[in-house]
UniProtKB/TrEMBL annotation:
SUPFAM superfamilies: Creatinase/aminopeptidase. Pfam families: Peptidase_M24. The keyword Transferase does not apply. InterPro entries: Creatin/AminoP/Spt16_N, Creatinase/aminopeptidase-like, Pept_M24, Peptidase_M24B_aminopep-P_CS, X-Pro_dipept-like. This is Xaa-Pro dipeptidase. It comes from Culex pipiens. Belongs to the peptidase M24B family. The lineage of its organism: Eukaryota, Metazoa, Ecdysozoa, Arthropoda, Hexapoda. It comes from the Eukaryota. Keywords: Hydrolase, Manganese, Metal-binding, Metalloprotease, Protease.
Length: 333
């Protein structure tokens, strides 16, 4: 009748807080006959994607296993004299031929030597084309995609299969940070505190190795952690490799402090969340120069020791983990 209320139509419309990209709302013939609501649906769907269903968990477990196996194949076969892209090619082949994963979740990052300090290397401007030399560290960040679900795994390793003393020092600093978070993350833990924990442990190891001096808490307060790890600890993973739900309206705001401000979420962890844990330590020339020029940072740096590492690149260890009520389940094998 004349007084009838028109039906409602809920459309998906809102920004991915990570990429800033907008979900394009649906449009169809006759939409003008509906009361269109573009506010309610997006945060509801985004929050549903944060907590993985049992079926999603099994797909994510599978694609992480395929990616882990492909990384192992690369590490077994690679040798000095290869180009970085040959490592990428080996990963792509194994993921598809053995795992049935036709696509990857992002452009493969295959940095060797100093290229391993370039956080998002491997794009068209730097297409994994460097010749890998004896003594290089490789940082390979690659993840297969299966049924639209992503993986995101990073392995760092010496191309000739044996760590030098300096390579071992940095690798073990990052490994200690990764282990500390894997031993502490669980439902109820604060992701911001997990980031701080990782950075604190890494700085302690660098101090023990003779690269830093002073109190680690003072280093953290000054923001020195962001010189060596200028990215967040990790991010949600799912249908997007940087999945939605990080900074929804009901979530904590992005922190302001150096390094921590790079976190893609500041939420308290819940069982069923699926995230990467990816601490790293890099020797990035512009950041080192910035630190040397800042008296609040320079006082912590043992410059003659740090300079040994200037062209060494970086190390990142990245695992894909499911949060449980009592800890984590690591899907990266």
């Amino acid at each position: 009748g004349a007084d009838s209320v028109p039906p409602s139509s809920f459309v998906l419309c809102g920004p991915n807080s990570d990429s800033g990209l907008q979900a394009k709302p649906a449009n169809f013939k006759g939409i003008e006959k509906f009361v269109v609501d573009s506010d309610i649906l997006f945060p509801v769907i985004a929050e549903c994607r944060v907590i993985k269903s049992p079926a999603e968990i099994e797909v994510l477990r599978y694609v992480a296993r395929v990616s882990s196996d492909a990384h192992k194949q690369v590490m077994k076969k690679i040798r000095p004299g290869w180009h970085e892209y040959q490592g990428e090619s080996e990963f792509l082949h194994h993921s598809y031929a053995v795992g049935g994963c036709r696509h990857v979740s992002y452009t493969c990052i295959c940095g060797a030597g100093s290229n391993s300090a370039i956080l998002h290397y491997g794009h068209a401007g730097s297409p994994n084309d460097r010749l890998i030399e004896v003594g290089d560290m490789c940082l390979f960040d690659m993840g297969a995609n299966y049924g639209g679900y992503t993986s995101d795994i990073t392995c760092s390793f010496p191309v000739n299969g044996k760590f030098s003393a300096d390579q071992k020092l940095i690798y073990e600093a990052v490994l200690a940070a990764r282990d500390a978070v894997c031993g502490s993350a669980k439902e109820g833990a604060c992701w911001v505190e997990m980031h701080r924990l990782a950075n604190r442990v890494m700085l302690e190891a660098l101090k023990a190795g003779g690269l830093l001096q002073g109190e680690v808490e003072d280093m953290m307060a000054a923001g020195l952690n962001a010189i060596f790890q200028p990215h967040g600890l990790g991010h949600f993973l799912g249908l997007d490799v940087h999945d939605v739900g990080g900074y929804l309206a009901h979530c904590p705001e992005r922190p302001a402090e150096p390094g921590v401000c790079r976190l893609r979420t500041a939420r308290t962890l819940k069982a069923g969340m699926y995230l990467t844990i990816e601490p790293g330590c890099y020797f990035i020339a512009p950041l080192l120069e910035k630190a040397y020029a800042d008296e609040n940072l320079a006082k912590f740096l043992v410059r003659e020791q740090i300079e040994r590492f200037r062209n060494s690149g970086g190390v990142r260890i990245e695992d894909d983990v499911l949060i449980t009520k009592t800890g984590i389940e690591n899907f990266t094998l």
